[in-house]
Amino acid sequence: THNLPPGLEYLNQLDQIIIHQQVELLEAILGTETSSKYEIKNHLGQRVYFAVEENGCFDRQLCSPMRAFTIRIADNAGREVIRVIRPLRCNSCCFPCFLQELEVQSPPGTIAGYVVQNWDPFLPKFTIQNQSKEDVLKIIGPYATCGCFEDVDFEVKALNEMTTIGKISKYWSGFVNNVFTNTANFGIQVPVDLDVRIKAVMIGACFLIDLMFFENSLDGL
User: What pTM was estimated for this model as a whole?
Assistant: First the structure.
């Protein structure tokens, strides 16, 4: 473990990661888009990291869910251990030359990997890459991401897209939560022996999927 990026040692023993978006009172009452804050927990509900989105008010109000952002992820001691950077890009299959690409750094300033959207006319598809931009895993979502009173699963697959090794799930949180807030609850399931850097990239992929497919307040209905 001494070769692991500082702060990622804890991910070494996890095969399930829960991401819970905190409710913003102003957003719930007025519908005003505020900077997202997340708690990242283990399967027992114990907080491992805390994440805060950074961007401008203009980006949040006018560019959401395409907005550029930087998400800083800190451990319980307040030390930033992961940085997720998303530039402003297209959110449509009509522009396959300018699709989403997200960079994950751990520690901040050192590349851990990338999440790259793949063009597909029907399915949400992404490739997880390592720090050398070599393909490692695929993420394939369902035809419809607006599940009716049920979870929505994005399958994590081997590069041949035949073997499923995990999933990213958007948990349905109930009618009141989905109608009146944009809060999200996600679960990431991956093999426990997956490289911790790739686990960090999977957390970045979860944030990207949330913004692309579940930003609207009526998601999950």
Answer: 0.84
Domain count, the chain: 1
Residue 145's alpha-carbon distances to 115, 172, 197, in angstroms, are 19, 11, 27
Mean of the pLDDT values across residues 125-137? 97
pLDDT score for 6 = 87
Q: What is the DSSP track for the chain?
A: -TTSPTT-GGGGG-SEEEEEEPPPHHHHHH------EEEEE-TTS-EEEEEEEE--HHIIIIITTS--EEEEEEETTS-EEEEEEE-----STT-GGG--EEEEESSTTSEEEEEEEE--SSS-EEEEEETT--EEEEEE--S----SSS-EEEEEE-TTS--EEEEEEE----HHHHHH----EEEEE--TTS-HHHHHHHHHHHHHHHHHHS-STTTT-
Q: Is 9 within the bounds of a domain?
A: no
Q: Say if 18 falls within a structural domain.
A: no
pLDDT confidence of residue 175: 41
Supply the range of the domain harboring residue 95. 23-217
Q: Are 208 and 188 in contact (CB under 8 A)?
A: no
Say if 13 falls within a structural domain: no
**Amino acid identity at 67:** R
CA–CA distance, 24 with 21 (Å, rounded to integer): 9
Radius of gyration of the chain (CA): 16
